[in-house]
Amino acid sequence: MDEFLKKLDASVAKACEKKTAVIFSGGIDSSLLAVLAAEHCSVTAYTVGVEEAPDIPFAKQLGSRFGHEIIKLSDDDIERELDVILPIIKATEGEVSPVRVGAEFPSYFAAKAAHEDGFKVVLSGQGPDEMFGGYARYLPVLYEKGYKELEKLLESDTCDLRDRIIDIDRAVCAHYGLELRNPFLSDEFIEYGLSIPVKERLFMDTKKPSCPYEAYKDKHVVRKLCEKKAAEEILPKEIVWRPKKAAQYGSGVHKALDRLARKHGFKEKAKKAGADGYLTMFLEERLAKC
Length: 290
Fold this sequence. Notes:
Blueprint: H1 3-15, E1 19-23, H2 28-37, E2 42-50, H3 55-60, E3 67-73, H4 75-93, H5 98-116, E4 121-123, H6 128-131, H7 138-145, H8 147-174, E5 179-181, H9 187-195, H10 198-201, E6 203-205, E7 214-216, E8 219-222, H11 225-231, H12 237-240, H13 247-250, H14 253-263, H15 266-272, H16 278-288
Parallel strand pairs: 1-2, 1-4, 2-3, 4-5
Antiparallel strand pairs: 6-8, 7-8
Helix pairs in contact: 1-9, 4-5, 4-8, 5-8, 7-8, 14-16, 15-16
C-alpha cells in the first residue's frame, strides 16, 4: 500500500467504532474514508442532495463496497430545516453566509439520518483541500508568489480548519448527538501531509503532466496531486479525477437556497434596497425570525 494510504488508513482505523457513519459526497476525500473505514468496521455512507445533484451518480459507483443511503432533498425539506441550522451556524461562526449554510446542509441531513439509524460517530473528509491545495484560490498565490508562500498558506489554512472552522461541522453533527471525527485532521496525518513537498501537493508547470490536468494562464495544474496518485490504488479513476465541486454545489443545495430566496421575493427586495446579495438577505431575515 502506498505510504499516503498507510498513513491515512492508520488515522481512519483510530477514528472508527464498531459501527461508523460517513458523510459521503462521492468525491475523492469522502470516498477514501469510506473505502478504508469499511476495512475496519461496519460502514454506512450517507449522500445528501437534491434530485439533480451532481454528487449522486458518483456516490452510487462505490455503493456496493459498504452500506449506502441516498437522501434526496426537496426545497421544502431545506426550508423546513433552516430554522434549526441557521442558529447553530450563527452561534458557532457569528454569521450565516450563503456559502457556509449551503456547505453545512449535507452534514446536517447526513447526521440526522445517521442518528435515526443509531450511529454515534460520523466521519467526514475535511482537510485535503487545505493541505494539498484543492481550492482555486491557491492558484494565483502559487503563480504570483511561488511555492514558498503557498506552503505557508496551506499550513496556516490547515491549522485554522482543525482549530476553528471545523467546529461548525461538529456543532451541526452534535445537534443530533453524533461525534464528528476527521481522520485527515488527526495530528499524525497533518504532520505527514504537511511534510509532503509542496510541489507534490499542488502541481503547476509549463510542462504537461502525464495525468489529467487543468489550465491556469500559461501553466498546467493538478490540485491534490499526491492524494490523487495514492487514491488510484483503491478508487475508480472517474472519482479520483473528477473535477472538484464544493459541498453546496455538488449537493445542489446552493441552487435550492437561491430558488427559495427568489420564491420569497428577496431578489426584488434587494433590488429595491439597492443591495447586492439577495440570498444573504433572505438568510439573515429568516435567522432573525428564529
